[in-house]
Design brief:
Order of helices and strands: HHEEEEHEHH
Strand content: 5-15%
Largest sheet: 3 strands, antiparallel
Shape: globular
Number of domains: 1
Structural class: alpha+beta
Helix content: 25-40%
Number of strands: 5
């Protein structure tokens, strides 16, 4: 059974030969475990392939260095063991909404590898694309607590 069929059978609950494996690691895992981790990953390869799309948010160029994504949210990570957190929310204050300009969503992130990734994976693996949900993007822009209060109080700006 190949990886793609394994994933479909698991999703359909029709008896894959084993559970599909999905690997997603933070940079700190390789820094800590190095060659041992590489050996483990080679022994248990992923049944998924990412589609080659990469956003510009959670990881950033360096530990401790904030960087703004295309939406204006500033991400900072404290170590290689964690994804970054939004440390500046562009709409933390609703007075910024009128001047805020949403990015062209078709130009957010790097799509340059997608076509080549799809061509080199002709049905062998289940392609996986990861992206933000609307709710995630809302709290990146507004701040988690602010967003929950806005939703609870039915703040007109949030809608």
């Amino acid at each position: 059974m190949d990886s793609r069929e394994r994933v479909f059978r698991a999703l359909e609950r029709t008896g894959p030969d084993r559970l599909p494996i999905f690997q997603q690691l933070l940079p700190g895992a390789h820094l800590t475990y190095g060659e041992k981790l590489d050996d483990l990953l080679a022994r248990y390869p992923s049944d998924f392939s990412d589609a080659g799309y990469y956003g510009d948010s959670e990881y950033g160029p360096a530990v401790g260095m904030g960087h703004a994504d295309a939406w204006g949210a500033v991400w900072t990570r404290v170590s290689d063991d964690y994804k970054g957190l939004v440390t500046v929310h562009p709409l933390a204050d609703w007075s910024a909404l009128e001047a805020y300009r949403f990015p062209d969503a078709t130009r957010v992130g790097d799509f340059s590898r997608v076509i080549e990734t799809v061509k080199t994976n002709p049905g062998r693996k289940y392609l996986l694309v990861d992206g933000d949900t609307l709710f995630q993007r809302m709290f990146y822009l507004r701040g988690f607590e602010n967003l929950l209060v806005d939703l609870t109080e039915r703040c007109p700006e949030v809608f």
